[in-house]
Design goal:
This protein is of the alpha+beta class and about 375 residues long. It has eight helices and eleven strands. The strands form three sheets. Strands 1-2-4-3-5 form a five-stranded mixed beta sheet. It has a four-stranded antiparallel beta sheet with strand order 8-9-7-10. Strands 6-11 form a two-stranded antiparallel sheet.
């Protein structure tokens, strides 16, 4: 556990960077980029970390928007990795708060580097940029490339409405179903058409009927990605995109087989050929329980109150506790439209004028 002097040093180091980190988070928020396209976000994070004394490397594990920033003092061990996510959702932007995850990871690395350097502590800090969390799962590519091999622990945070230690993580399998029919004029000759959208609707009906027989730890949710071009044309092509989640990958595969059965049943109507593509699954993570216990032990008296520890992948419902009172959010987070952004033009996002140097250091 850190003694009081080290906690004070951490607070002081964070205090000198608070404004820059809040602005960095707001800057990323104002310019949402989809998975694999996070060029600006990765660039801003790399620039910030380079200015903090890290050795930075772009394009990791074959991903152009992945990065790693390393700093070491007197030896490679212990080695801690802070994970940064920074991709956004289509249309919704940073609804999952990945801009906060990115700024928190960069800030944690910078603050810890200063404290370790001043205290003469040995070890290695890595801030790892992990793109495409919402889509392809960039951490899987990084894991396969051996990027985590030398780390002793990988840590990250995720914003929420309550504070907790540990957290829930489910295995995930994405799957896309495509149905093909025959186009026809819906008013003049509907008898000549085969409605591919009807197969999608029947698939969703089958999934809804299936839900009452699924275990509590299973989640199945989907959207219609293609459903036709005009109401007066019988759709000849329709698609549905689903996520299958479960506590284990084996459980997710069982549910996937049942979901596929629903899609096949929807396609049984005459003339409804179908195909389906399973995308790369995401393996569930397991919290490091001793580290969680250490965090929980250190929180009382530091302004936080942690609930019961979460078991691996199955936190109790009481694992969260309300946050204690905090200062109000920065206006930069409340008004992202006022931040500089050249990634896209919109009447609601006007550029900030007169900024010199790194944008997060602007007044």
């Amino acid at each position: 556990m850190l003694e009081d002097g080290r906690w004070d040093a951490l607070r002081a180091a964070l205090g000198t960077r608070r404004e820059a980190l809040v602005r960095l988070a707001g800057l990323i928020h104002s310019c949402p980029e989809l998975g694999g396209q996070e060029v600006k976000a990765a660039g801003w994070l790399v620039e910030f970390l380079a200015g903090e004394g890290f050795s930075v490397h772009r394009t990791v594990a074959g991903m152009d928007t992945a990065f790693r920033a390393d700093w070491s003092r007197d030896g490679p061990k212990p080695a801690v990795i802070f994970l940064a996510e920074y991709d956004a959702l289509p249309e919704l932007g940073h609804a999952c708060g990945h801009n906060l995850i990115a700024a928190a990871a960069a800030g944690a690395g910078a603050v810890l580097r200063q404290v370790m350097n001043e205290a003469g502590l040995t070890g290695t800090i890595t801030v790892l940029g992990t793109p495409a969390e919402e889509t392809a799962g960039g951490k899987i590519d990084l894991l396969k490339a051996g990027v985590f091999a030398d780390g002793d622990a990988a840590l990250m945070m995720h914003p929420a409405t309550a504070s907790s230690v540990g957290g829930k993580s489910l295995a995930l399998i994405p799957v896309r179903f495509t149905f093909r029919g025959r186009a026809a004029h819906a008013a003049a000759s509907p008898q000549d058409g085969i409605n591919a959208l009807e197969a999608v609707i029947q698939t969703f009906n089958g999934v809804n009927a299936l839900r009452q027989h699924l275990p509590e730890d299973v989640r199945v949710h989907g959207i219609v990605t293609r459903g036709g071009l005009a109401p007066n044309v019988v759709p000849d092509l329709a698609e549905a995109y689903f996520y299958v989640r479960a506590a284990t990958m084996a459980g997710a595969r069982v549910v996937l087989r049942r979901l596929t059965g629903c899609a096949r049943a929807g396609a049984l109507r005459p003339g409804h050929p179908s195909e389906w593509r399973k995308k790369r699954p995401s393996v569930k993570s397991c919290p490091i329980l001793p580290w969680n216990a250490a965090w929980k032990h250190s929180w009382p008296g530091r302004g936080w109150n942690a609930g019961p520890l979460a078991a691996c992948g199955h936190p109790p419902t009481s694992a969260t506790s309300p946050m204690l009172s905090r200062p109000p959010p920065s206006p930069w987070l409340l008004r992202p439209r006022e931040l500089p952004c050249t990634a896209r033009s919109s009447p609601k996002r006007r550029p900030h004028r007169g900024v010199s140097g790194p944008p997060w250091m602007a007044p």
